[in-house]
Amino acid sequence: MSGRRYYIETWGCQMNFHDSEKLAGALVREGYVPARSREEADVILFNTCAIREKAQEKVFSELGQLRGLKARKPGLVIGVCGCVAQQEGERIFSRAPHVDLVVGPRASGSVVRWVRQLQRADTAPGHRVDLAYREDSVRFPFEAIKREGLHRRKAFVTIIEGCNHRCTFCVVPRTRGREVCRDMEEVLAEVRHLVARGVCEIEYLGQTVNAYRDAHGRTLADLLRATAGIEGVERIRFTTSHPAQMTERLMDAMAAARPKLCPYLHLPVQSGADRVLRAMRRGYDRDGYLRKVEALRARIPELSLGTDIIVGFPGETEQDFRETLSLLDAVEYDMVYAFVFSARPGTPAAAMEDPTPPAEKLARLHRLQAHQRAIQERRNQRWIGREVEVLVEGPSRRDPREWSGRTPENRVVNFPGPSEPGALERLRVTEASAHALRAVRLSGTRESGAA
Ligand code: SAH
Ligand code: F3S
């Protein structure tokens, strides 16, 4: 059985990316080795995203591409994992009959067992389905995770899975199930394990990461304080926070964990109009959100903020949309991810009346992006002349002579190479655009410290 090759493709959020690292780890532990391409693989797993229709359709079109491969290689096992698997279940087989295995995100611990069974049975296709919402999904043995990040100095660590909110547009509560939290001591054991292997940046993950509360009542506030006390941890991030659960206690802990706690917070607002926020069932209003931003900035003045916005939610009027634009002005975000509303089957919002034509929604998206671009340009200009430290990610995508890294504020900085992934470089910012900074090197780059 050993020497069989696997190939995993991942779409969607960091959570999915990290789940794939667990899937890979589980396969490696069973003697599988990575394949360089789909053609070379004995097992192909798609770890999928169902958040918007486009993401889901992409999965089906890629699955279509595997039909020929499966015909030539009947022993090949094709598995669909993640949120599309949970959302679509058996229906995947009717659209893509060459798929063998459909496994939801909370059942991914069983993928390896299914793969083995299918390979033993040698029946093609297998058509196995496992959509159980396993409570122990958070207890994946962390030593086995096969970290495939940009470099060895940064690692994702799951602390909570699932979501107990019920935003009317969102599939996540259904695809990922109810919240389950890891024990804080186990999380800290993982962090120490990572630091001993040279990791310096830890990013805690959860769909609602600030809802974290373990069986002993320890919260994200406690976890941040404890993490900041671990020698070798240099940068701490967490994502994604829900505004309703952004408590003063947590804000205090963030301030106390500075400077290790990176001054960047992703705090999805979705809309600036109370009417829309209510229809989305977000659990806060515009004023409440703005007050939290103020309370955060009172504690951490240098805090950079990012957000997610949905434009064209059913019934969103021009007036509602303008309130979102004015919220962008009020907050002055450093980063905004904006999406046109996508009706997802089975969600309450999909059944709401939606008279706005798609072209109008797209026009609103473009207006919002232009509006935010001007804000970001202005905010990034302020960095010119300042010294920053970046954790290097790799050569820049546009120009391979340029290298690229991120500041603690999560800003992308491009600078002249050569460098190496995972190095900490000190730079001086010389130029700024809406999406990135350019910089020159200063002497005194710190040890890249790989173990
Ligand atoms: N808590 C989550 C948020 C889930 S999805 C997290 O970890 O990021 C990420 C973003 O996708 C949401 O904040 C929302 O802005 C967007 N989104 C979710 N459902 C959507 C839908 N039906 N249509 C358009 N955008 C959506
Ligand atoms: Fe989705 Fe709302 Fe949870 S956006 S992930 S239901 S907080």
Q: Could you name the key traits of this structure?
A:
451 residues, alpha/beta, 6-stranded parallel sheet, 5-stranded mixed barrel, 14 helices, 21% strand, globular, binds S-adenosyl-L-homocysteine, binds FE3-S4 cluster
> Which structural class best describes the helix and strand composition?
alpha/beta
**Fraction of residues in helix:** 25-40%
Radius of gyration, whole Å? 22 Å
Distance between the termini: 32 Å
Low-confidence stretches: none
Read across the widest sheet, the strand sequence of neighbours is 2-1-3-4-5-6
The geometry reads as: globular
Could you tell me the strand content as a percent range? 15-25%
Largest sheet: 6 strands, parallel
Give the bound compounds.
S-adenosyl-L-homocysteine, FE3-S4 cluster
Total number of helical segments?
14
Strand segment count: 19
Nearest-integer average pLDDT? 95
Describe this structure in words.
The protein has 451 residues and is α/β, with parallel strands linked by helices. 34% of the residues lie in helices and 21% in strands. The strands form 5 sheets. Strands 2-1-3-4-5-6 form a 6-stranded parallel β-sheet, sandwiched between helices. Strand 16 (402-406) and strand 17 (412-416) form a beta hairpin. Helix 9 packs parallel to helix 10. The longest helix has 24 residues, at 358-381. The protein is globular and about 60 Å long. The protein starts with a strand and ends in a 10-residue tail after the last strand. The protein binds S-adenosyl-L-homocysteine and FE3-S4 cluster. S-adenosyl-L-homocysteine (SAH) is lined by residues 13, 51-52, 169-170, 172, 207-208, 240, 268, 270, 308, 310, 339, 341-342, 344.
